[in-house]
Structures are given as structure tokens and as C-alpha cells.
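Problem 3 from the worked examples.
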Amino acid sequence: MTRAEFVEKAKAAAIGSSRESKFPAGITVAQAALESNWGQSQLSRTANNYFGLKAHGKHPAMEFRTQEFVNGVEVHVVQRFAVYESMEECFACRDRQIENGTAYSAAREAKADPERFAIELAKHWATDPNYATKIVRIYDECELSSIDHLLK
């Protein structure tokens, strides 16, 4: 799948999940692109998991080796990641986690401002200190604000 094909597929899934959550769909696409390496990661290809969502409880899961940043140092760990039937299911689950997670209250409050939403989301979503900057760069470079305007 090319980057353009990934963006088109992800746009449809993000618009669907954002209609309910009201989170910026363009940021959802940018985050999925970053997390899944434009749909090329093993996790996205084998588990339809485009955000690195961890498995909890009895949710179907697969173990994958991943990188995390601990005190600014990159380390590799094995984690249990959720398995999804489709991209749409994964995007909806991501939005539910943001909607229900107490750590994401500032992101929820910022949902009308995509860049601020990304900054607030990044504070609790990832350990990469440049995570928000990377999401916003993809959002801008791919002109993903255009899909956010469709939902207003």
C-alpha cells in the first residue's frame, strides 16, 4: 500500500470514528500513519492495529517487540497488543480510549483545535518526546485539516 492509498483508507475510517467522538479526524489519520509506518508495520498488517493499542483483559492479542523511551533512552520491550478485525474497529477503539481515559481529559477539551489536541494526546499516549511534533508534521504535510473541515 502506498502512502496515498493508506491516507485514503485511513481518512474513511477516521471520518467514521470522528462522527461519533468529534475528535479531529485529520489528527487520527496522522497518528495512524506515524504509529503504523503508513500501514506497513507488522502490527498494522497482521493485527489491524494502527495506533499501538495494548490488549487488556480478554481482548484478542498478539505479542510484538516494540521501542519505548525510558528517561529519554530508547529501549526495546515485548508487549501485548490488541488485534482488530478492521481498520474501522481499531479507529473506533482508539477514540473510545481517548473518550474514557482520565489521562486524556485535556485532549478531549482541546478537540476543537487539532494541533492542541495532538499535543495533549501525546502527553499520555507515547513515550517519544517528539510524538506530537511528528503527528502535526504529517497532519500539515498531508493537508489533513481538509477532512476536519468536512466534519464541522
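Problem 4, a separate protein:
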Amino acid sequence: MKRCHTMQLLLAAASAVAMTPALAYIDPTGPIPITAEQAFDAVATGCLPDTPDVPGACYGFGNVILVDVRTQTEVDFQGGPAKVDTIVLKNGTEIVPDMGKAILTQDGKFLNYTVNGKKKNLKVDTVKEVLTSLIGKVAPCSKYTPGPNPGEGKFEPDTDGFSEAMKQIAADAPAGPLVAITMCNSGGRSTQCPLAFITDEAQNLYALWYEIDRAGDEYITPDIFGTPPFVAAGAPPPGIHMAVLGGYSGSDYGGDYNGIIGFPGRQTQKQPISGWVEFDTEAPLGVRLGAPSGPTVSWKDSGLPIYIPAVQCILPPPTE
């Protein structure tokens, strides 16, 4: 099958022409928050959108990199951000959407996409399969150690592993200013990793740092937490940008909404935008984060394409 990538090539050429000098530091309050859809468009075109603090600019196709800081196990079993390679209909028709972008809408009943710039709206029940491929680079900044009982496992920083992965990603990218967009499961590690768990050498290879999360001031404040264990261990205090409404899956709203993290069509916009639910010192595990409110900007909640690797979950027969 011959695929047409004219749109991507034109956008890449435009990106190279429009490239501008970039800042050379990461803001001490954390990476610049952008939505999942803005992150997809940035990776597909090489261009970043305007934000309140930083004007948008183009860095060239391949120079804006989505960095998945989750562990490889999380990626294997939860899946990750992807582009659509082909939409295969039940009648045999094959569709290649512009930029590999197709978004599920209306509770997952329709796929919205464009072909040669023309908008299309397709009923999902006419689709046989959607072939996708990962668009992020995996660079875990932590290791997970299971605990003896459920809920007692813990993530521990892996500065050396994260830094080496980020250096390799930079080495594999085209020449030019590089921009990293970090992403974790909900928006916590995507803030912490480039701020606290990376060497200066690796961090300085990137001109700007963004993350998938929601902008604003609705974040946990230090006076609610006091000094939680992760701050004592060297992580940034929670008053720094940690909206926990972005990332791959977003938030489960502390179970108050529907208990499910991230799925296409979830009516997250019905959440009141009122900051964080008060921190509950009597909650399970003793240290429960206050639940965020307001709509998430996560990858799944945006209905963007995902790819789930074919991990074999059927166990072989036991050996004697």
C-alpha cells in the first residue's frame, strides 16, 4: 500500500524555515504545561503553540520530542501515545489521516480526522481496525519496587538512567534546537523528573521543556502537605506545577467522579474548576493527595490515538 505523507513533508519544511532561537533553561516552577492535543500537533509538525509565558516557535520536524518518563512496564501494559498509520474500514477501504491524527469524539462513537486538509467524521462501527504506532521516546526516571502488601510498593528516582536516556534521545534527533515534552501517567513525574532527577549535562541538551498537563494555579499548596516524604527525599515541593490533570491517563478525581482514569469521551468538563479538594490526613495509606478538579487535558481523555504493545499475558504451563 502506498501512503501519502505530503502534508507532513510540507509542515516539516515550513518548520525548518520558521525556526527561531530558543531559551536555554528550564523554568524553576517546572516545564511549560500544554494539552495532550497540543503535544501531538507539536511532535507532528515541529512547532510549539503560544503559551502565556513563551511565544510559539518552530524547531523542525523531529526536534520536538515527546518523552514518556513512565517505566517500561507501565508502557507495555497501559500503552502509550501514538499516531494512526491506517484506518481500515469493514468494507476494505484504507484511510491514512493527515499527520496520523484521528480523535475519538462523542463518547467514542466517531473518529474525527482530515485527509488532504478536508475534515472527515467517521462512525466507529464502520471501522474494522485502527493501526497505530508509538510516537514517544521512553526515558524512565524512576524504578518501581513492589512492596510486601498491596499499596506498599514505591517509585524511586533513577537519575542516572533518566539522564543517559535523555542524552541518547538527543543524539538520535536531527541537528538543531531540541524541545522535550515530558509525559507520565497523570502529571506528577512529568514535572519532577526534569526538575530534580536529571544531570545538568542532560538537561542542557534541550532548549525548552514542556509537559502534558493543565496550566493554571489549581495546584496543591505546601501548607496543605507540610513536608511529605517525597519532598524530604529531594523532589520539588508540591506547590510547584503539579496539576495531575494531564499525562497519559489524567486523574480519577479521587474516585469521586467515576473511579476510572482516562478514557475517550469522559465528560471531564463537567468537573468544577475550583482547585484541589482538601487534603485528607485520615485517608488510606496515610498520605493521600488532594483530588484535583476541573477538566483533564490527558491523552486518553482527549481521544487521541494510543498503541498497546502485544504483551503476552497467557502463562505457560508450570514446570515440574
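Solution to problem 4. The chain has a mean pLDDT of 81. The longest helix spans residues 159-172.
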